[in-house]
Design goal:
globular; mainly alpha; 11 helices
């Protein structure tokens, strides 16, 4: 019974929240670039702004770190609750609760005056632990959408909506066969995911307005990818030209 673990849920929720307060965009921008990301671009300490301001590499590193921030506490909760003999229903609810609290800590960090990121990367990390197979499928589709529209906010809103739809369908037993290799969804878990959806949508409220108006800023991912591709292509052309020139010079010497 969930009611038998109330104080444990409170503890993991608080711990998850404070872990979520760790903002890697701020840490990386200050330690690597010696500039505070909150003073540049959209001033949002998140993956997208890091990519726009400091480039693709810094954006990807921030994304991975924020995802890891979600993975670690959820894994710890899983092992701790398993160790104390909790049932699957209990430890899985604890994982969902920790996941949500960690994301809240990222979006509303007390140590940053409640002005954090938008919770997208962290929510990916926690869901990869809790429901890995559905999340990987959703991410694969989301990446295609991102490459087509180049709007990280669209990707984020699609992702969290798809997660909610999956959990609703799973709760009603639609994915019975799939759930044999994943996990069942109870009503308390579904409520947590619904709160997830509300949190991410609210954090992206300004993005939603810009999307509706058609003025949402591109993420810069497509530009960065094609820039690197064009750079590599040009380098290959230059190398080929140098090789041809060297060969011709060698032939001229022989003649």
């Amino acid at each position: 019974m969930l009611s038998d673990y109330i104080w444990q849920f409170i503890v993991v929720g608080i711990i998850g929240y404070f872990i979520g307060n760790i903002n890697f965009a701020v840490i990386l921008s200050n330690s690597v670039k010696h500039q505070d990301i909150r003073a540049h671009g959209s001033k949002n300490p998140g993956t997208t702004n890091m990519m726009r301001v400091f480039g693709l590499k810094m954006g990807v590193i921030t994304l991975l770190c924020d995802m890891l921030k979600g993975v670690v506490p959820v894994f710890i909760v899983f092992f701790v609750f398993k160790a104390i003999g909790a049932t699957a229903e209990v430890y899985r609810f604890a994982m969902y609760l920790t996941a949500f609290c960690t994301t809240v800590g990222h979006v509303y960090p007390v140590f940053m005056k409640f002005k954090g990121g938008k919770g997208f990367a962290t929510s990916i990390g926690v869901m990869l632990v809790i429901q890995p197979i559905p999340t990987l499928i959703i991410l694969a589709v989301g990446c295609v959408i991102l490459l087509l529209c180049d709007r990280m906010s669209v990707f984020a809103l699609f992702y969290i909506t798809a997660e909610l739809i999956f959990h609703i369908l799973a709760y009603f037993g639609v994915f019975t066969e799939v759930l044999k290799i994943t996990h069942s969804v109870t009503l308390p878990m579904l409520i947590i995911v619904a709160l997830f959806w509300c949190l991410v949508f609210y954090a992206h409220r300004s993005n939603i307005v810009r999307i509706i108006k058609g003025v949402e800023n591109p993420s810069g991912l497509r530009k960065a990818l094609f820039k690197n591709k064009n750079k590599n292509t040009q380098q290959s052309i230059n190398d080929s030209e140098k090789t041809i020139a060297a060969t011709e010079l060698e032939n001229d010497k022989k003649n």
